[in-house]
Design a protein that fits this description.
2 copies of one chain form a homodimer. Chain A is mainly α and 192 residues long. Chains A and B meet through helix 6, helix 7, helix 8 and helix 9 of A and helix 6, helix 7, helix 8 and helix 9 of B. The first copy, chain A, binds a DNA duplex (18 and 18 nucleotides) through helix 3.
Chain lengths: 192, 192
DNA sequence: GTCTATAGGGAGATAGAC
DNA sequence: GTCTATCTCCCTATAGAC
């Protein structure tokens, strides 16, 4: 059983995660984090030896959080549409909270310029998300709640890529464009 | 009438565009470009005073190229599906050529950490792409070639965001995931 | 755990010679 | 147009005091 992270360590992870989603991994520094926390550069290095270590820790924490979220939702909610809407809500929250984009998206966009140690975690993250989506879509179609052609894994790619892409587009074209894309996904999958 | 850009200037734009799509704007430097061209740092500054100027020039050249592409295609091709497939092919080429992602996507992902002067161009680019897609989808549905619910502009968001997002996902999860997403878009829009 | 101080490197950018 | 040389700044990272 892992110990509860001390306050500073958690605050560093929070700040790094926020800046990752706001500016990208290549556009924030230890100095930026230190400034936000009111400490000095070297304090961050005490908790995370290198920026690559910090990057991996941010991704792995996000993966654990999503796993807990999915486990709880799958246990408590039976309605496929409400499960999918809960997933949509994660992205709506990102949009609202300062125009963040999804961590998975920015890590893929910067995939060839982030430290090599982070890439395995970034890949594992998108697989986590897609597996949950695929399972939820499969279950929902069996129950007659969703309608779509092809396999659930195929539709999961369109849904996941649309959410990720539309969050990014919303930055350059206006937040309401994300809602447009979301509503179109709902229209496509609503049984006729 | 603008003069034909000299060789070096064009080569700088080519290198910058490639690195933008491969690594992101924040992950390449004047030194990287100079090295690839076999010249020195300062030579790049002669052609583009600042990196922001270079960034704007790359985006504006891309926009002009897309406008010419669209004009030619709209004049020569009547079949809506073949027009859409030609658009898909742009993204397939990116995927094949070293795992590039679309310029629009990386600029949006880094939107809050690129020079302010570049943002207007980045926004104009996504509007160009979406306007062409919207027009093509509208025309195709009128002719009975496409099937989708909602408005053409709504479907254009899903198609555009899927292409952009799926190219990124393909990096972290395998190139074949892009083809999966593409095929699902075709299935969704094929008249039943 | 956090600090000061600093090493060492890379970034964008400019001046002036050729 | 391209070069050498250089400025200034910021970055990641470490050593050692407190």
């Amino acid at each position: 059983m892992a110990a509860v992270p001390r306050e500073t360590k958690r605050e560093i992870l929070d700040a790094a995660e926020a800046m990752l989603q706001e500016r990208g991994f290549n556009a924030f520094s230890y100095h930026h984090i230190a400034e936000r926390l009111g400490v000095k550069n070297a304090a961050i290095h005490y908790h995370f030896r290198s920026k690559a270590d910090l990057g991996v820790a941010v991704i792995e924490r996000y993966r654990r959080r999503f796993a807990r979220w999915a486990e709880k939702l799958d246990a408590e909610e039976r309605d496929p549409w409400l499960k999918l809407e809960a997933f949509f809500q994660i992205y709506l929250d990102f949009k609202i909270r300062g125009g963040k984009i999804c961590p998975s998206g920015i890590l893929q966009a910067e995939y060839h310029s982030i430290p090599e140690e982070m890439r395995a975690s970034a890949s594992a993250l998108i697989v986590d998300l897609q597996e949950w989506l695929t399972g939820t879509l499969a279950q929902g179609r069996e129950q007659g709640a969703f309608q779509f052609p092809g396999e659930p894994a195929d539709q999961a790619m369109v849904v996941g890529a649309t959410l990720q892409g539309a969050l990014q587009i919303a930055r350059a074209w206006g937040p309401e464009r994300f809602d447009t894309a979301l509503e179109q996904l709902r229209r496509q999958m609503r049984p006729s």
